[in-house]
Amino acid sequence: MILLTVNGQARQVDAEPDKPLLWVLREDLNVVGPKFGCGVAACGACTVHIEGQPVRSCAIAVGDVGGKSVITIEGLSGSGGEGGLHAVQRAWIENQVPQCGYCQPGFIMATVALLKVKPKPSDQDIDDALNNICRCGTYSAIRRAVHRAAAILGGAP
Ligand code: FES
Ligand code: FES
After folding, report:
1. Which domains, and CATH codes, for the chain?
2. Atom of ligand 1 nearest to the CA of 36
3. To 10 degrees, what angle do helices 104-117 and 139-154 make?
4. From 104, 107, 130, mutation site for ligand 2 pocket: most ligand atoms within 8 A of C-beta
5. β partners of residue 13
6. How many CA atoms lie within 13 A of 106 on its CB side?
7. What ligand 2 atom has the least distance to the C-alpha of 134?
8. What is the spatial distance between Cα 67 and Cα 142, in angstroms, rounded to a whole number?
9. Per-residue pLDDT for 80 more than 60?
10. What is residue 83's predicted lDDT score, i.e. its pLDDT?
11. Atom 4 of ligand 2, residue of closest alpha carbon
């Protein structure tokens, strides 16, 4: 049995320690926000936060996450003030970022992590930090939404 905290809830998992966290979340815990894209830490669709750091959950074994706190896109709502969606999620909606939507949870989780360390990122900061892959090509809309989220979090109009 492996114990971990997922979105603030203590969870117990009966899984092989080398099973990727992504599959434990999706198959064992029915937490399906993190998506499978490549399985080799290349696309970022599976990004979650572990102890506040963005991590590609396809590339970390659940045995290495025991006792740690995991936050997925499902855990963002209510964490960004006003009891509703996180500011990054609101900025995404305002800018109508998603097309098919498949990659977006990963981009949003990476953006939340970026804005914690760089509250006012430049376009270059965004491009460097968000090296996820979007097959629909939403990159320019994502940049706009990241700037908007930074403004919301900074209290700008
Ligand atoms: S599925 Fe994890 S990085 Fe692509
Ligand atoms: S919105 Fe379709 S892959 Fe990114």
Report:
1. 2-75 (3.10.20.30), 87-154 (1.10.150.120)
2. 1
3. 40
4. 104
5. 2
6. 28
7. 4
8. 33
9. no
10. 58
11. 134
Write down the pTM of the prediction: 0.94
Q: Which amino acid is at 157?
A: P
pLDDT of residue 79 exceeding 70: no
CB 47 within 8 A of CB 34: yes
Q: Atom 3 in ligand 1: which residue has the minimum CA distance? A: 41
- Angle at the Cα of 57 from the Cα atoms of 52 and 61, rounded to 5 degrees: 105
Q: Among all chains, which residue has been given the structure tokens 């599976």?
A: 46
In this structure, what are the phi and psi dihedrals at residue 61, rounded to the nearest 5 degrees? -80, 145
**Tokens, residue 138:** 């939403």
Pick the more confident residue, 117 or 84.
Answer: 117
User: Is residue 84 over pLDDT 90?
Assistant: no
In this structure, how many other beta carbons lie within 10 angstroms of the beta carbon of residue 145?
Answer: 27
